[in-house]
Design a protein that fits this description.
Order of helices and strands: HEHHEHEHHEEHH
Shape: globular
Strand order of the largest sheet: 2-1-3-5-4
Strand content: 5-15%
Distance between the termini: 33 Å
Structural class: alpha/beta
Low-confidence stretches: none
Number of strands: 5
Length: 187
């Protein structure tokens, strides 16, 4: 009997939890594979788990996650309708930026998840997911809010919620970008 998409996503999550491909497995409390339904029309992809995510094993549950999840609900989604994940599946020490070798060790997990999910729209949150999924030289300040297709997948880049928390003037643009992603996912 063939595996269901949810079953295959569960296998990827198990692989993430057992991964030792880079040194981050030595310092993590929990790997954070990502979460959401197999039929998610939208996927939100950030850079890496933070301390709260590492403690709970869930993506975007800290302050920036609370902003993302609150905005998702305010714009008319339910949290259980979207997939939320990260480029890295383990927390870098001190919340440092993901290193190229860490991204290289983790990227196949995210790419496999996106192939299985086939969301209508992927929202890249910040530069690391933007550069991995769309183009390595792109800048979030120039690309946010635009929508583009690459290899048949529709993307809407926006600011990482942690950047919005540091600079509240980005909040209207962040909300506008997520609303655009919602409209595109409904077509």
């Amino acid at each position: 009997m063939p595996d269901t998409v949810q079953g295959l996503l569960g296998k990827i999550a198990d692989e993430v939890r057992g991964c030792t491909a880079c040194p981050l497995h030595k310092t993590r409390t929990h790997a954070v594979p990502g979460e959401g339904p197999s039929a998610a029309a939208l996927a939100f992809i950030g850079e890496a788990p933070g301390a709260d995510e590492d403690r709970q094993g869930r993506p975007f549950v800290g302050r920036s996650g609370q902003l993302l999840r609150r905005t998702i609900v305010e714009l008319g989604w339910r949290e259980d309708e979207v997939f939320i994940g990260n480029v890295l599946k383990c927390r870098p020490p001190g919340n440092q930026d993901p290193l190229p070798e860490q991204i290289s060790a983790c990227r196949h997990f995210l790419l496999a998840q996106l192939v299985l999910l086939q969301p209508k729209v992927v929202v890249t949150l910040g530069r690391f997911s933007l550069q991995l999924l769309i183009g390595p030289t792109l800048k979030i300040s120039q690309m946010h809010g635009q929508h583009m297709r690459k290899d048949g997948q529709l993307y809407v880049p926006t600011y990482h919620p942690s950047a919005v928390l540091r600079n509240n003037r980005l909040l209207p643009e962040f909300r506008k970008d997520l609303l655009k992603a919602k409209r595109l996912s409904e077509n």
